[in-house]
Each structure stands twice: as C-alpha cells, then as structure tokens.
Amino acid sequence: MEILSVKILNPKAKRLLKEMVDNDLIEIDDSKKEFLELLKRLQSNSENVPTLEEITEEVEIVRKARYEQENNR
Fold first, then answer.
1. Do the Cβ atoms of 38 and 47 come closer than 8 Å?
2. Which top-level group of life is the source organism from (predicted)?
C-alpha cells in the first residue's frame, strides 16, 4: 500500500476520486479529522489541559523573546 498527498486543482478530479472510492479502488482519509482525533487523545491523557488563552499567552511570550533576541544582534 502506498500513501500519497494530493492537491486537487480541478473539481472534475475530485469527482473522479470519489468514483474510485465508490469502486473500492482507493480510500481517502481526512487529515484534518485525524489531527483533531490525535489532539483529543493527547488532551485526554493530560490531567491539566491548558486553555486556549494560556496557549496564546505562552506563544506571545516566546514570540516576544525571539523578537528581542533578533533585534539585539
């Protein structure tokens, strides 16, 4: 089995892919769905899941530190 990532440029290609799925020639997985499932699994394993606000605050702290480091060169 081979796994490929495909960028659909023409809507006709999507129709062809759906036909191939219907004929059991290929399977299509939604990578966004897989990522969300992984995220939920990781969060369920943690006792103290950070809130979106806490994550945003941490990101801003790191960005500020990088910005200051780049400007002090």
1. no
2. Bacteria
